[in-house]
Design brief:
Blueprint (H helix, E strand, L loop, with lengths): L2 H14 L4 H9 L4 H8 L3 H12 L4 H8 L3 H20 L1
Helix pairs in contact: 1-5, 3-6, 4-6, 5-6
């Protein structure tokens, strides 16, 4: 199967099992740095999911956009705002 077909299949599975807050909490529970985990809890669910897909699962922006049902620019904006919030929280 081609890489594109595998990706489309994974997107369909993702969309069928829309991520809920519980799944995001599971992702956060794997983080050993308590301050970082708390910073991630301060994000919106969409920001948290975008960060998880980008930095923990290695998705590209267009893949995240497809999986989340939004535009690539929206993903870029979500990630920028999320990283800014995490950065501010970690600096305090």
């Amino acid at each position: 199967m081609s890489e594109e077909l595998l990706f489309q299949e994974s997107v369909l599975k993702y969309q069928e099992h829309e991520p809920e807050a519980v799944e995001s909490e599971d992702f956060i529970e794997t983080i050993k740095n308590e301050k970082l985990a708390n910073a991630l809890r301060q994000l919106t669910p969409k920001q948290r999911k975008a960060l998880e897909l980008a930095y923990w699962k290695g998705y590209k922006h267009w893949e995240i956009a497809t999986a989340m049902g939004c535009k690539r620019n929206t993903v870029t904006e979500l990630l920028a705002r999320a990283l800014e919030r995490v950065s501010r929280y970690m600096a305090d």
